[in-house]
């Protein structure tokens, strides 16, 4: 009796461990696929950025140094030269509450004229 209880309990635990392992494998595959998708999108964006820059450089008098200086200027807008664009919070011009620049309109009052740049809301 005791032996069969332990056998059943052990089988149940093994079954649960197997289910959890399968779930973890599924989640790992999904994360891997998501990472590959992001990497592919990043590579496409890099390609487009390079093409845009080369068109601009070839058709204007802008130089690589101009581009590098502009990248650093934009990078430093948040006060830190870290190779990232850190968007800061802003105040809603209607209600004055703090909000993320990712939002296209104020989540408190619905004011919709907060987009100041094509990159707002990205
Ligand atoms: Zn508001």
Describe the protein in words:
The protein has 122 residues and is mainly α. The protein has a domain at 2-62. It is built from two helices and two strands; from the N terminus they run ααββ. The chain has a two-stranded antiparallel sheet. The site of zinc ion (ZN) has 8 residues, from loops.
Biggest β-sheet, characterized?
2 strands, antiparallel
- Proportion of strand residues: under 5%
The SSE order reads HHEE
How far apart the termini lie comes to 64 Å
User: What value does the average pLDDT take?
Assistant: 87
Radius of gyration: 26 Å
**DSSP strand tally:** 2
Which structural class best describes the helix and strand composition? Answer: mainly alpha
Concise description?
This protein is 57% helix and 3% strand. The chain is mainly alpha-helical and 122 residues long.
Helix and strand arrangement:
Elements (H helix, E strand, L loop, with lengths): L1 H58 L4 H12 L14 E2 L6 E2 L23
Antiparallel strand pairs: 1-2
The chain binds zinc ion (ZN).
Descriptive keywords:
122 residues, mainly alpha, two-stranded antiparallel sheet, 2 strands, elongated, binds zinc ion
């Amino acid at each position: 009796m005791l032996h069969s209880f332990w056998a059943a309990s052990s089988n149940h635990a093994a079954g649960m461990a197997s289910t959890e392992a399968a779930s973890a494998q599924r989640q790992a595959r999904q994360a891997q696929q998501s990472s590959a998708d992001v990497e592919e999108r990043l590579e496409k964006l890099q390609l487009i950025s390079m093409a845009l820059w080369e068109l601009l450089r070839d058709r204007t008098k802008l130089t690589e140094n101009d581009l590098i200086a502009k990248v650093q200027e934009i990078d430093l807008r948040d006060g830190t030269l870290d190779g990232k664009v850190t968007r800061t919070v802003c105040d809603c011009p209607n209600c004055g509450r703090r909000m993320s620049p990712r939002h296209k309109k104020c989540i408190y009052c619905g004011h919709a004229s907060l987009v100041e740049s094509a990159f707002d809301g990205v």
